[in-house]
Amino acid sequence: MKAEQPRTPVMGGLIDASIWHRIDVEFSLPSLVQVTRRYEGRAADWELVLRKLVRVFIEGETYCPGFQFVPGGSLHPVVVGLFGHAMTLRVPHNYFTAWMLTPSTDLAGSRPVDLLHEAGHLYAALKV
Questions:
Q1: How far apart are CA 24 and CA 6, in angstroms?
Q2: In a structure prediction context, what are the per-residue pLDDT tens digits for the chain, which is 128 residues long?
Q3: Each residue of 42-69: b (16+ CB within 10 Å) or e?
Q4: What are phi and psi of 64, to 5 degrees?
Q5: What is the pTM of this model?
Q6: Which residues of 4-126 form beta strands (DSSP E)?
Q7: Which residues are CB-contacts of 65 (< 8 A; sequence separation ≥ 6)?
Q8: What phi and psi, each to the nearest 5 degrees, are found at residue 61?
Q9: Roughly what angle, to the nearest 10 degrees, separates helices 18-26 and 93-101?
């Protein structure tokens, strides 16, 4: 089997639909409605949490990639920070999500989602 070559999603290009399936299998991909039901009563300020959520729009529905949640249900602080930074760089939600799962030459072939313990490297790679 040929090793997958590191690559970066091209802004404005099509995102391979298989990425959504991969996210669902590896991390889960609940709908925004499911996430709202699960967390709305638990968060003191649900509107603030909602603004921090990574959301993807797929075939007319909104989903929340599971990689942004830590065990217990709160948001992963590194993902929240990276996503906020991506928003300042005007990276759309879907492209940020695809970037998180795509092996990157800027990260020695690793996927950003696998390096959440190395936030500094991720911020630098996101700027590229």
A1: 21
A2: 444 444 445 566 788 889 999 999 999 999 999 998 888 777 677 788 888 999 999 999 999 999 999 988 889 999 999 999 999 999 999 999 999 999 999 999 999 999 999 898 999 998 85
A3: eeeeeeebbeebbbbeeeeeebbbebbb
A4: -125, 105
A5: 0.85
A6: 56-58, 61-63
A7: 23, 27, 29, 54, 56, 97, 100
A8: -125, 155
A9: 70
Q: Which two three-digit tokens encode residue 122?
A: 């991720």
Find the helix or strand (DSSP H, E) in which 2 lies: none
Report the alpha-carbon distance of residue 112 to residue 119 in Å, rounded: 9
- Structural tokens at position 62: 């909104």
The label of the residue with tokens 């217990």 reads 72
